[in-house]
Amino acid sequence: MNIILIGMPTAGKSTVGAILAKVKGYEFVDSDLVIQIEEKRLLKDIIEQEGIEGFVAIENQVNASLDIEHSIVATGGSVVYGREAMEHLRNIGTVII
Predict the structure, then answer these.
(1) Distances from the Cα of 97 to the Cαs of 37, 41, 90, in angstroms?
(2) Is Hydrolase included in the keywords of this UniProt record (predicted)?
(3) Which of 55, 59, 71, 84 is packed most tightly, with the most Cβ within 10 A?
């Protein structure tokens, strides 16, 4: 089972997620870092080059393809705009908003 944390930017999802993962003995996944690794660009560069809509599309695709188990996931604040991502996240774990 995974626990997926969703909330506004700077709400503390990554901070709480890392602590929760340690306490539960789970892996910690920051989906913003996964996006940067897969895109080989910083988030600000993706937004600058692709615009907000392009970034949201990339974020949707990356989150919809997460293949993880026993993890705490801190998502980016705009993950809620991606239908496929939200459906996938609900299927692979408990979503906490």
Answers:
(1) 25, 27, 12
(2) no
(3) 59
Which helix (DSSP H) or strand (DSSP E) does residue 32 occupy?
Answer: helix 31-39
Instruction: Specify the CATH class of 2-8+15-96 in words.
Output: alpha beta
Q: In what order do the strands lie in the sheet with 2-5?
A: 27-30, 71-74, 2-5, 93-96
**Using CA atoms, how far apart are residues 53 and 23, in angstroms rounded to an integer?**
36
CB 55 within 8 A of CB 46: yes
List the domain boundaries for the chain.
2-8+15-96
- What's the pLDDT score for residue 48? 98
By C-alpha distance, which of 94, 29, 96 is closest to 63? Answer: 29
Predicted TM-score (pTM) of the model is: 0.93
